Write the C-alpha cells for this entry.
Amino acid sequence: MNLDRAIACYEAGDKDAARLAALAIPAKNSDYAGARNLLAVIAQDQGQQVEAEAYAREAIAAAPGHPLYLNTLGNGLLAQGRSEEAVAAMAEAHAALPDQPDILFNLANAQRQAGYLETAAGSFRRAIALRPNHIGAYNNLAVVLKALGDVEAAAAVLIEAVAYAPGSAELRFNLGNALQAAGRRDAAEAAYRKAVELAPGHAEAHANLGVVLAEAGRKDAARDAFRKAIALNPDLVPAYVGLADLVDDGTMDAVAHRRAVLALNPKLAPVRSSLLMCMHYTNVSREELLAEHRAFGLAHNKTGAPAFAATHTAGRRLKLGIVSGDFRFHAMLFFALPVLQARPHDDFEIFCYSNTVRPDEHTQDFRAAADHWRDVRGLSNDALTNLIVRDRIDILIDLSGHAPHNRLLVFAARAAPLQVAWGDYVNTRGLAAIDVLLGDTYHTPPEDDALYIENVVRFAPDYVCYRPPAYAPGVTAAPVLRNGYVTFGTFSEVTKIGPEAVSHWAAVLKAIPTSRFLLNGYLFKDETRRAHIAALFANEGIGAERLIFRTGGPHPEFLAQYADVDVILDTAPYSGGLTTCEALLMGVPVLTIAGDRFCGRHAAAHLVNGGSPQWVASSLEEFVGKAQVLAGDPPGLSAHRPETRARFLVSPLCDVPKFAENFYGALRATWDSRFPPS
C-alpha cells in the first residue's frame, strides 16, 4: 500500500520520498486521510506550518473527529502561536482518546501557552499518571509550576524525574532553572555543573551557570562560563547578554564593556539593545543616544512595503496588535493593562503577542483583556511576522522597546501597515519601519522632535496613565514624627542608582546633617550591591551609618514601606516612573530635577500631571532648597500626606477613561490620516 510505503520512508528518514508517496494517494482511497495527516506532519517537521495546517484540515475533513489528525492540527496551530485554537483541537482529540498520554501532553502544552496554567498543571499530572516515566511531562509541569510561583514544587517534580532519567542533562538543566528561581543558588550551581558534566556541549547550561555565578558575585568564573557557552554556540544570545550584563553599575565602564561584547558579534540585536538600555543610565549626551539608536536601525532595518496593504473602509473596526515581553507583574500592569481594558470594543479588536518569558498570575489579566492571545515565546522573528500578517493586524504597537525579550526585528520587517512605539521604553527605537512614537509635551516636547526617528504624536497630558492597585495600604503619618529625624529615600531599581543620583542625594544629606537615607529594592539582598552603593555615598562624604537598606517584598508590603520615608529623592539621569506614582499614592513627596531627555522627565511629568508640580526643581540648588523646606516642617510633612494622595487620585494621571479616549482617538486619527478611506 502507498501509505505503508510512505510511512516506512518517513520512519527511515527519507521525507521527500514519503511526501511523494503520500501525495500519490487519491482522495477516493481509504488511505487518503492518513496520507494527508502524514503530509501535515512532514510539513511541520520542515517548518511549513501554514501548509501543514491545510493538510491536517484535509485529513479531518476526510475523517471527522479522528483524534490523531486533530492532534496533528493542534500541534500545527500551537507552532503558529494560535494557542486557543490549539486547545480546542487537542481537547477534542483528548475526549476521543482520554487515556492516550501523548495527546494529553500536547493538550497540556496548548493550555500552558494559552495561559491556562492551573489547568495545564493538572493535564501534565494526568499524563504522568498514565506514563510515569514521561520526562517531557515532568519537564513542562515544572515550568508551569514555576510560572505559578511554586518554584519549590517545580524543583521537587524535577528531582522526581531525575530518578527515571539520571543521565539526562536536560533534566539537570531544568532543575537548575527551578532551583535558581527558588533562590537556592548553590543547589542550582550544582545542577548546572552536573548538566555540563553529562553533556559538556550543552551551551545553555554553561550560560545559565554563568548567570548563577554572576549573581553570587563570582564574576570571573561567570565570565569563563559565558565564554565557554559562546565557544560552543557562537549564536547563543543569552550568553552574550549575560557577558554584557556582568557590568551593570550605570557607569561608562558598563557602556564600554557592552561595546566590547558587541564587537564579538556585531549582528546580535539583543546585545545592541542591552547597550542602548545601559546608556540611558549614564551621562552620555542626547546626540550620542540618537547616534546609537540610528546604528541599531542601520544594522537591522529592512526595506520593503508593509506585509499586506491597508484597507480603507471608513470607520471599520481596526485590528490592534500589542507586542510585549512584559505581560506580567511589571510597570505595564499599572500603565498599559488599564488602557487595554478600557478600549472601545466596537472600534478596536485587540491581539496580544506575548513574548513573556516568565508569565505569572497577572499574565491572565492581560490575556483576559485581549480578544486574541498569542504566546509567541517559541516563535522565530520570521514566524511571528508571518503570524501577525496572517492575523491582518492594522496597527502594531511595541511596548518593550530595547528592554529584554523585545521583538523589534519583527517591526523592522514591517509586519503591519501602521507601527507604533509606546510603553516601557523611553526613547526612539531607531527603526524607520516604526511610524509613530506616542508622547506628550513634558516627556517629548516639540523642540526635541529631531531626537526621534519616529513621528511624535502627543495625545494626552502624560504619555501614560496610572491605575492604583486595590490593595494599596492607607496613608500613614510621616515617620519624622516618631523618629525625630527626616528619612529621605528611593524605591527605584538599582540600575538607576549611579554616581549622579548619589551626588544629588549626598548634597541633600549634607545640607540636613541629621537625616538618613533609605534604599528599598529586592536586589539589596546582595551584599555586593549594598557595598557598591555605600561606596558611592562614601565618595561623596556620606558614611554608611546614615544608610538604611531594605529588600522589598510582595507589592502590598513594598507599598506599605513608604510609611518609613518622609521624602523620596528622584534618580538621575534616569528618573523614576512607576515609583513616582506609587510615592504619590502613598502621600509621600517626590523631589526631582527635570532632565533634558525622555527618561529624565518621568517624575517631573508625573508630578505636574499628578497634582504636585511644586516639587519639580530646575537645578541642584533648588532641589536641595526644596528638601530643606520640607525637612524644616515635620508637622506639615505629615499633615499633607493625605492631601497628596487625594490630589493624585483625581488628577489627569489617574483618569483612565479620559486617557483611553485620547489614546484610541490618537490611533484612529493617525490611521485615518495615513490611510484615508477611498
About this structure: The chain has a mean pLDDT of 92. Residues 656-674 form the longest helix (19 residues).
